[in-house]
Amino acid sequence: MTAALAVDQLGFSYGKGGFALRGVAFAVETGRFTALLGANGAGKSTLMGLLTRLFTPDTGAILIGGHDLRHRPGAALAAMGVVFQQPTLDLDLTVRQNLTYAAGLRGLSARQTAPRITELLDRFALSDRAGDKVRLLNGGHRRRVELARALLHRPPLLILDEPTVGLDAPSRCDLVDHVHRLCTDDGVAVLWATHLFDEVRDGDDVVLLHRGQVRATGGVPDLLSRSGAGTLREAFGTLTRPEGTP
Ligand SMILES: Nc1ncnc2c1ncn2[C@@H]1O[C@H](COP(=O)(O)OP(=O)(O)OP(=O)(O)O)[C@@H](O)[C@H]1O
């Protein structure tokens, strides 16, 4: 089966000297929550920039739903929903207005739009906020509106760049729950960039990014057994240790 996202030998540099990403390769399968785990400066946002075509890779290929982002960008980008790190809703429009406008941009007809928005607001427990201006919503609810917006066109792949930045602990947990349910209930493939270990669950896949390179990929139990660690935090420490260090 075609992976929802396949990245092969991706390389990128911002300029002379050094690289932001080198030889990055991994896949995100249908219905899987994949955590792109890395410390500050690991290259997570750079990778997100390549996946969304903000930057062009120096080397390698990105296939989204089997479509090559370089050669078939329209089809590739249509197969993906994105939640960027910085919120981008219009605060003075209502929740429904924000979603209606985005649905138009995604090419949904008026007849398709209303039921799709109703379904998504219900899905993310926002039905009673539909007529409120976004300005009145707390950070967690705003993020859920962004999730709904990213899913309007029913993409098989959802990518999120550190989406819990600025949220309090309950809202963070709530968002992580909602997105995991998208995988298990709806079969959406998710790539979730984070540096927070507690956002990763035992059944998730992990792509461990360190200084622009993938140090390990696999399920959580697999990473623990390979590194002989008891926790993901310890496994991260072991797998990112410079060679030759005890
Ligand atoms: N616009 C830029 N110009 C030059 N170098 C950059 C630029 N953006 C990022 N970098 C560098 O590229 C590397 C990867 O940065 P990136 O922002 O992708 O990491 P990150 O994992 O997203 O970190 P964070 O969690 O802090 O957002 C870092 O060394 C960073 O300094």
UniProtKB/TrEMBL annotation:
NCBIfam families: PQQ_ABC_ATP
GO molecular function list: ATP binding; ATP hydrolysis activity
Entries under SUPFAM superfamilies matching the protein: P-loop containing nucleoside triphosphate hydrolases (SSF52540)
Pfam families in the record: ABC_tran
PROSITE patterns named in the record: ABC_TRANSPORTER_2
S-adenosyl-L-methionine found in the keyword field: no
Protein name (Swiss-Prot/TrEMBL): ABC transporter ATP-binding protein
Source species, domain of life: Bacteria
Alphabetic keyword roster: ATP-binding, Nodulation, Nucleotide-binding, Transport
InterPro entries: AAA+_ATPase, ABC_transporter-like_ATP-bd, ABC_transporter_ATP-binding, ABC_transprt_ATP-bd_su_PQQ, P-loop_NTPase
Family, per entry: Belongs to the ABC transporter superfamily.
